[in-house]
Amino acid sequence: MIHICYATHFCYDTVVLEKKTQSISSIIKLFIINYMNPISNWFCRIKKSIAAGYAVLFLLVASTPSLLAADLLQQTTDPQSTVFAQGANGAPLLLPSYWYLIMAALSLLVPAGFVLVSVSGLRAERAWDAAIGGLAAIGLTGFAYWSIGFGLHFGGIGLVHTLPELQGLVWEWSPFATDWGSGWGMAGLTGWFLSGVEITPLAYALFLAHLPWAMTAAALPIVALRGRAPALVTLLLALLIGGILYPLAGNWVQGGGWLSALGRNVALGHGFVDFAGAGTVHLLAGAFALAALIVWVPRLPRQTAAAAQLPPVQLPLLATVGAIFVLVGSMGWQWSNPLQVVRLSELGLMRGSVNLLLCAGGAALAPLLYAWFVTGRTDPMLGARGLAAGAVASMALGPFIAPGFAFFCGLFVGVTIPLVMFIADHTLRLDDATGVLHISVIPSLLGLLMAGLFADGRVGSGWQMVGIDSYLGIANQGVSGLFVADGFARDFPGQLQAQVMGVLALSLWGFVLGMILCAPLGLFFYGIERAANSKLLTSRSAAPAPPAGYDPNQAAGYAMGTDPANGSPVAPNLPQRPDDRFGDPRVEQRPQAGDPQRMPEPTNRPRRAVFTPRTGGSHES
User: Quick one: how far is CA 540 from the chain centroid?
Assistant: First the structure.
């Protein structure tokens, strides 16, 4: 053993000290080649297995909500643990309370997704402001809807839905007398700060279901305005939208107000049907954003049709992820409202989910094909915005139409996206960089009108308390339009008229109130800006005038000289920069070449040994 160690030491001395054939770097390289390569090869062999494991884990996590939903629909639950115990056609659809909690949590992906899709087309500086504005709008809307919004929204819901859990929410304001009917309400008057004896588990479920709706309604116009309107204005508008604008519109539709009662009071179908807030959220927010974009300039410069280009894609990954968030969140968005699930059978639940996927997929394909034919390549932002627009349209269609019609409706919505983009940016010059008009306004409007045409009557029996036992002489007939399924009667033009009235009412409510709020605020802050600029100019012009004979050069110490020959002024005696090239006394003279004080140049440099790996020897240099 001693001889072996001595031999190893001798070899080490020979290699490192005498021959100098290897350096530290070469030793490290040899170590990596001999010992790390097997480890890296082993890692490469298992890398695919690790990736497959992560993919399986992701699929399991993603499929958990759907598996849980299927299990909840099959199991028999205790009525004491359910939020309600009433279903369509007298068949109770009992769901536990945590069903609505899970669906509400899933629907929170929708406002986050729309913020990502909107921000992805902005420049870097505007994207920063828009992202902050979206987060601020979500937070402020939560406070406003909790404090006063829920009371305005569902303060009188107990007058329409006779469930025991809603008997405390029976205060509703209406401008008409009771002779006109009981469904002409316009604002709830109880449930402030989500407190009181009238707040039951069902009331909490309604709050959780509609809070993401309010957040989305506020985030869409605020993100569009950031970078154009003052930040204080956007924060104030978020409070007003979440606390007043959206809750009042929601009261008219989901809260038992006058639009939902058109079927009971004036026999217009099942009243205005807005399954998942396409009108009360997207049409309303888009109309408000349109008014705000008109108020706050600047406009885009005029361009010819030949010079029009597709909008630049700043962050394509954000657009894609945001669109997927909207699609996944819309699944929970549609099934989080307990008052809607109570009137749907399992057919409605499943068909509504299929319609969502088909409509969103069709709307994503159309703009991708358009970009491919026009520019020769697909555009990720157009595809992402098409997917989000299709999800918006499906919120209006819901389970009331057949899946085939849902796909073709999505295709039609997708075709309108490039057209609306061109009109908004190049004809109206509104600079709709976030796409609120072609993502929210047009898809929601088309979806609401198509629901009045293609509803087939198979789903929605007793919707909005119309035709609970039978409708148009047919038992279990639901929401119907012009094209109905076999065995059901047409409800045309009554249902379409109700849809048109609802579209006009929500559009005018959003646009007119947007102009009423944005125009005075715009003028006010414009006046403040003009006053500040005027004060700055006045302070500059009010500076004291210099005295007579004032010479700024003389005041700075640069007096003008005089030529002694002719008395003409010469250049001022400006201080010169020290320059050693002309022997300036202010500069310490440096030793020059040949000066004995100058250090001699080295003539004999020490030679060093250079190792030559190819020959193994060394040479002198």
Answer: 45
